[in-house]
Amino acid sequence: MSALAPLIATPWPDVPDLLLPALGETARTVAVVMTIVVLLGGPLGLLIFNTSPLGLTPNRAAHVTISWIANLGRSLPFLVLMAAIIPVTKLVFGTTIGFKAALIPMAVAGVAFFARLTENAVREVPRDLLDVGLAGGSGRWQIMAGIQLREALPGLVAGFTLNVIAMIEYSAIAGAIGSGGIGYLAVNYGYRRFDNTIMIACIVLLIALVQLIQFTGDRAVRALTH
C-alpha cells in the first residue's frame, strides 16, 4: 500500500482547493458552538459559584444540582458523548450526520467545560470586592455583572481560549460523522485513501491554528491583566 500512496496522493498545488473549504467549515462549526457555549456556559458557571457556600446566594440543593449537570457533560469522552446523544440529535434535526449532527454534542461538552472555567475564574475574585458592592447597596445581579465578571475577565478570556481549542479538537473528531471540516478531510483523504499529502497538510493546519489561537488568547489576557 505504501508503494501506491505516491500514485494517489493529492498534488501539493491542489491542496488549498481542499483545505480552505475545510477550514471554513471548521471555523463555522466552532463559531456557532462557541456562541452557544458563551451564552449558556457563562451564566451556568456563575450560578455554580454563587450557589456555593462562597457565593452570593448559597443554596446547597441548587449548587449540587447545577454542578451535577455540568459534570455530566464532562464525564464522558467526546466520542462516547457524541454517540450517546445521537437519538437527541435525530429528534431535533432529523439527521445523525453532517454539520447539524455535530452541534448538539459539541455544545453539551463545550457548555459544561466553559461553566467550570467560568466558576474557577469567578472564584479568584476577592471576596472584599463583593462585600463592598453589597455594602454600597448593589443588587446581587449587579455585582455578578459589574464586579465578578469584570474582575474575572482575564481568567474568562483564558478559559474561552482553552474552550475554542477544545472545540477545534472536537470538530475534528466529529468528522467521523461527516460534519465536514479539517477532521473530515483528514479521515476521508488522509486515512481512508492513504493520501499522505492531505494528512500532513491537515496536521500542519491544525497545529498552526491552535498555536495562533493560543498566542492571541495569551496576548489578550496580558492586555487585560496590566
From TrEMBL:
The UniProt entry's sequence similarity note says:
Belongs to the binding-protein-dependent transport system permease family.
Q: Source organism's superkingdom?
A: Bacteria
Q: Which UniProt keywords apply?
A: Cell membrane, Membrane, Transmembrane, Transmembrane helix, Transport
**Protein name (Swiss-Prot/TrEMBL):** ABC-type methionine transport system permease subunit
Among Gene3D superfamilies, the record links this protein to: MetI-like
- Spell out the subcellular localization from the entry: Cell membrane
**Would I find Isomerase among this entry's keywords?**
no
Pfam families the record matches: BPD_transp_1
Q: Where are the transmembrane segments?
A: 29-49, 61-86, 92-115, 152-177, 197-217
Classify the protein's membrane topology as the record does.
Multi-pass membrane protein
Its main localization is: membrane
Cite the ABC transmembrane type-1 domain residue spans from the record: 23-215
Any single biological process term in GO:
D-methionine transmembrane transport
